[in-house]
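Researcher: Re-running this chain for the archive, since the previous output was lost when a drive failed. Same request as before.
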Amino acid sequence: MQASALSPSGLVCLGVLLTSLSGCHKTPPAKSEPFAQVTEMRQRSVTEDPAVTGNFPNNWQLEKPSGPPMPAEESEIDEFQERLAKIQVAPLVLEDLAPGATRKVDLSLAGPSGLNGVVRWIGTTSPLKVTVSLAGSPLATTGSTYHIGRDRGGSSVNAKTTAGGLATISVTNTSGVPVKLRIVFASSAL
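Model: Regenerated structure tokens:
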């Protein structure tokens, strides 16, 4: 038996016939509701973010974060109140400090204590001189000095005393510009 060859025009006719029989030429379905609501928003570029550019507001206040309250069974209020009874905090210092000027904050300690000082300034990224002493004698401290943005810096210092007495944190503006200073000085009885 001899096979018959189909001509190209015969193949086209066969394709059209099969297509019409298979239902491939159905009309598209009518447009319906979309499956998801799409909302387009423009987000600020990272190069416009104040934390990236170093442009911070010229104050210390932060927004209070929002969130759900902690469940009562996870509360650590009793432990916090026990520790809080051992803590003494000097009045907060917020003031302008001229170049070369020094500001001191004192705490009277009843006995051995852990000391913590947090100093922040606006006006320079240069480190300021921060020292902690007990009864006039300098104490060995641990901590770090840092800077952020174009005109802010800070220092966190920690020390331990073996006796009571007058503890002092001293901050000297060693930069050549005035700074807005904030000092927090606290102790915890050991």
